Amino acid sequence: MNYFELFNIPVSFDVDLSELPKTYQQLQRLTHPDKFASGSDQDKLVAIQKNAQVNDAYSVLKSPLSRAEYLLSLRGIDLQHEQQTIKDTAFLMQQMEWREELAEIADRTDPLSALESLEDEIKQTIKSDLTKLRHLLESDQATDEKSAADVIRQLKFSYKMLSEIELKEDLLSDL
Amino acid sequence: MAYSEKVIDHYENPRNVGGFDKNDPSIATGMVGAPACGDVMKLQLKIDANGIIEDAKFKTYGCGSAIASSSLVTEWVKGKSIDEATAISNMDIAEELALPPVKIHCSILAEDAIKAAVADYKSRQTK
C-alpha cells in the first residue's frame, strides 16, 4: 500500500490540505500503540509499524516537494538517494548570489526588511516552480518526468535557502 | 555525527577562500551543486600558459564536509597540470578527510567542481 492509498486519496500531486490533517489524526488514533496495550506482542509490533508508516506518509504527503519526489519514486525515479551533482551555471549563480546576500544581510541598514524581501523573492521562485511541477507531473511522458525531476532538484536548493533564511530571521530577531 | 579532525581543521581554517575575476582569461570557473543537500560550490583555478594550475580559490555554501572537501582540493590542485587535477577522484578526498558514507556526496561535489572548472578552461581555449 503506498502513502496515497493509506490516506485513501488519489495518487496525484494535488492534495486537499484541509482534509489531510483530519485523515492523519484519524489514522493516528486507529493505529496508536496504546490501543493495543493489552494485545499480544505481535499486535503491538504491527501497531507500532503501522503507526510509524502513518507518520512517514503524513510528513511526505503534506509538503509539495516531498510529495512530488514520492510520486516520481512510485514511477521508478529515485531522487532521494542520488548523488549526482548539477552543473547548470546560470541556476547555480543565482543560488550563490542569494546565499551571498544572506551571508551579508546583517550589515544592511535594515536587515529584517532586507531579509523579508529576499524571502519573498525565493517564495516567488518556489511558487512558479511548483506550478511548473504540477503540469509536468500530470503528464506521463518520460521527457516530462525527466523535466519534473530537474525542477525537483532545483526546488531542493530553493527550499534549503528558505530554511537558511528562517534560521537567520530567528537569529536577527533575538538580537 | 562526529567530524574527523581534518574536516574540523579545514572547516575552521578553510584554505583559499574567495574568488578571482571571472573575466580574467587565465581564470577558469566551475560551479556545481548537490541537490541531495542543497549545497553550492564555486571553484576557480588560475591556469598558466602551460596548463599548470598556479592558484585556486573556492566559495562553498554547505555543511562542514563540503567546505572541507573544497578547501582540500584547492590545496591539492596547486602546481598540478589540468590533466593531473582532473584525475583527483572523490574517493581520494573522502579517504583523506575520513568522510562517513552519508557525506560522500560532498567529495563528489568537490571532484565535479574541478572537472567543471577544467571544462570551462577548455571551452575558453577553443574559442
Describe this structure in words.
Chain A is mostly helical and 175 residues long. In chain A, 71% of the residues lie in helices and 0% in strands. Chain A has 2 domains: 60 residues, Helix Hairpins (Orthogonal Bundle), CATH 1.10.287.110; 85 residues, Monooxygenase (Up-down Bundle), CATH 1.20.1280. Chain B is of the alpha+beta class and 127 residues long. Chain B has a single domain, classed as Sufe protein. Chain: A (Alpha-Beta Complex). Chain B is built from 5 helices and 3 strands, in the order αβββαααα. Chain B has a 3-stranded antiparallel β-sheet. The longest helix of chain B has 22 residues. At the A-B interface, α5 and α7 of A face β1 and α5 of B. Chain B: It holds the Pfam family NifU_N. Chain B: This is Iron-sulfur cluster assembly scaffold protein IscU. Chain B: InterPro entries: ISCU (IPR011339), NIF_FeS_clus_asmbl_NifU_N (IPR002871). Chain B: A scaffold on which IscS assembles Fe-S clusters. It is likely that Fe-S cluster coordination is flexible as the role of this complex is to build and then hand off Fe-S clusters.
